[in-house]
Amino acid sequence: MITTEPATDPFDEHRRLLFATAYRMLGTVSDAEDIVQDAWLTWNKADRSEVRHPKAYLVRTVTNLSLNRLTSARATREEYVGPWLPEPLLTEPDVAQEQELAESVSTAMLVVLETLGPVERAVFVLREVFGYSHAEIAGFLDRPEPAVRQISHRARKHVAERRHRYDSDTAEREQITRRFLKACAGGDLNAVLEMLAPDVTAWSDGGGKVTAGRRPLYGSDHVGRFLIGVLAKPAMAGVTVVPAVINGELSVLALAGGEPIGSLTYDLEGGLMRNIRIQVNPDKLAGLRR
User: Where do the RNA polymerase sigma-70 region domain residues begin and end (predicted)?
Assistant: First the structure.
């Protein structure tokens, strides 16, 4: 008797794409996972015989669910305590080798995407990151193709004006990260200062749940002393700080008892660290457990 294995469910086949789409649109791991779950419920109830192109159907579903979530999230973020930063996401080590993919999920890019309107963000992600045509996106969003082209042009221009190209040399980044960890472990302020750009800025996202800076810190001296001061606090006893690939770039992960308690990502330019983003909000660390 000959048996055949059941065909792979299209949802399982495209699950990673669906999560990647939702995460880039929302900047939050927890919301992206919720969207994927909601998309599965929609898919499970759908009449499969009416779905001619499962991948397009699923991407459209995730896109529109994400748009609804993003619209409501903006009102919530207006009341957020302190700086709002995207949720960090542990990524595969080889992602850092794929420059285009790494840039699309980098913390710096997610911060820029936050400055787009919901529809502009959806169009940009679908077009510039995943390569969908304007016609396909128009179908996803139920909008005329000429309107989608205009939105795409506007969003691309907006991102280009705010997006800065930082160094992407992985070997240099590994060297800087390890030097930074060594200097912090030894409480060597001078060594830390040597790695910071003079006009470095640091943001801390505690969301009002844990102690964190309510405003950005500017300048190498302020930022360097802040970092050394945090690591010297008694509460940091027993905390392990290690390198980890976060959002496609080698960064810093803080662990207590094997559980993540925070992350530090940064941009690298001219061999110096700038735009340091520290995530310590316990509600935004799920992506560091993946």
Answer: 11-74
219 and 258 belong to one structural domain? yes
Instruction: Tell me the residue range of the domain where 191 lies.
Output: 170-288
Listed residue (210, 205, 191, 214) closest to 276, CA to CA: 205
CA distance 25 to 20: 9
What are 264's two structure tokens?
A: 């530090």
- Count up the domains in the chain and report the number: 2
User: Would residue 232 count as lying in a domain?
Assistant: yes
User: Which pLDDT band, with edges at 50, 70 and 90, does 68 fall under?
Assistant: very high
Do 33 and 156 lie in a common domain? yes
The three-class DSSP label of residue 106 is coil
Residue 215: exposure state from Cβ atoms within 10 A (0-12, 13-18, ≥19): exposed
Residue with tokens 């499969």: 48
Report strand pairing: 239-246 vs 259-269.
unpaired
- Prediction pTM value: 0.87
Question: Among 87-96, 176-185, 198-207, where is mean pLDDT lowest?
Answer: 87-96
> Rounded to 5 degrees, what angle do the CA atoms 195, 84, 172 make?
25
Cβ contacts of 79 within 8 Å, gap of 6 or more: none
Six-digit token string for 52: 């001619």
Question: Could you say which DSSP state residue 196 is in?
Answer: B
